[in-house]
Amino acid sequence: MANPPVETVNTSSDKLMLAAGVALAVIGIVAFYLLSGQNLAIRTVVLLICIIGGAAIASFSYAGKTFVGFSKDAYREVRKVVWPTRKEASQTTLVVFGFVVVMAIYLWLTDKTIEWMIFSVILGWR
Q1: 100 with 44: CB under 8 angstroms?
Q2: Which of 9, 20, 90, 115 has its CA 20 to 30 A from that of 49?
Q3: Distance in angstroms (rounded) separating the CA atoms of residues 56 and 64
Q4: How large is the average pLDDT for residues 95-116?
Q5: Which letter, b or e, does each residue of 91-102 get, where b requires 16 or more Cβ atoms within 10 Å of its Cβ?
Q6: What is the C-alpha separation between 58 and 26, in angstroms, rounded?
């Protein structure tokens, strides 16, 4: 069952929240490089705080709510996937490798046959 559609009005405040979120993430990236004299841990914490804060602010906009809904639906669909067992994956891999070897031999034989037809039979070269 999919999430019900988010019913909000796309207003200038939504655009402002989205812009503020992006601006905060950009400020975090700029601060990471401006604090190059500081410890890497401090720089990384500042960067993560700004990016997470920007994502949180942007998630309250219409586009952010739509993205969160899409992400939840995508995660729900991934959980429904039936992944192959190790044995099935190994067998499929072996079949693919076998097919590649058979096709390589077939293409090599076809190439050599055409080469023989052109150079030996048609042109008479040896």
Answers
A1: no
A2: 9
A3: 9
A4: 97
A5: eeeeeeeeeeee
A6: 13
